[in-house]
Amino acid sequence: MVDILLRRRFGLLGRNISYSFSKGYFTEKFDNEVFAGNSYENFDISEINYFTELIKNNPDLKGLNVTIPYKEQVIPFLDKLSKKAALIGAVNTIKFTKNGKLKGYNTDYYGFKKSLEPLLEPHHKKALILGTGGASKGVAFALDELNIPYTFVSREAKENIIDYDLINATTFDNFQIIINCTPVGTSPNIDACPNLPYEFFTEKHIAYDLIYNPAETTFLKKAKEKGAVIKNGHEMLIFQAEKAWKIWNK
Predict the structure, then answer these.
(1) Element (H or E) spanning 10, and its range?
(2) 33, 91, 99, 175: most buried by Cβ count inside 10 Å?
(3) Are 212 and 232 in contact (CB under 8 A)?
(4) Which runs of consecutive H residues, i.e. helices, occur in the chain?
(5) Which domains does the chain have, with CATH numbers?
(6) Which pLDDT tens digit goes with each residue over 178-215?
(7) Strand partners, 65
């Protein structure tokens, strides 16, 4: 008989998340007898204002993961943030504390850092971060911890952000790590890719895509054709999920 203490519900907050990695990962994890009684489900809401109602209608929830587009939008609905989540400015894990409070954490930075580190060589000195959303903030924090300077790239140039039209051969000489933090190239739009001059990738570059479906995006394929080391977001997701599990259980 399953211990009543192990009957706990978890889930993923997001929009259009039927493809979700998290539900499949945790459902498979909970199939193990050790975790019997736990369940994991998707909470797909069309806008963040429905979050309050979701919490009210599911008082037995113990933890949530958060994905696009709510990693930043959910913050005002939380009671407190971990120190690192506050510094990052984005949340991908929520813990329901014993006194009924909601505390936000960021495990994206941890997963990214742990998956990138084995690829780094001395010549990998600077990074370009494609995109400026919640996921990119965790990536930037991880790069700060690794002492790797970075520049953001977006469709509109702003302070400390360059636009795609400015990227050229010199850019690729100066930045050896290119990280796609945008949803461009996600299934089913697998032919799409960030607007880059891919001919300037070399074997000295790392192309990292946070997307994991498909496993090899057009961004990664084009970089690999030029000899770049490539990595998708699958391992990052495993690391961040296990970190979230530890947070929920501490």
Answers:
(1) strand 9-14
(2) 91
(3) yes
(4) 21-30, 51-57, 83-88, 108-116, 134-145, 169-174, 218-225, 234-249
(5) 8-105 (3.40.50.10860), 109-233 (3.40.50.720)
(6) 999 999 999 889 999 999 999 999 999 999 999 999 99
(7) 12, 93
The tokens for 25 are 């990962």
Q: How far apart are CA 88 and CA 109, in angstroms?
A: 9
Catalytic positions: 71
The tens digit of pLDDT for each residue in 164-186 reads 999 999 999 999 999 999 999 99
**Could you tell me the pLDDT band of residue 6, with boundaries at 50, 70 and 90?**
low
204: buried, middle or exposed (CB in 10 Å: 19+, 13-18, 0-12)? Answer: middle
Nearest Cα to Cα of residue 178 among 146, 213, 202: 202
SS3 80: strand
Backbone φ and ψ of 66, nearest 5°? -130, 135
Torsion, Cα of 48, 49, 53, 54 (10° steps): 0
Contact 185, 164 (CB under 8 A): no
Strand order in the sheet with 177-180: 161-163, 150-154, 127-130, 177-180, 206-209, 229-231
Global pTM exceeds 0.85: yes
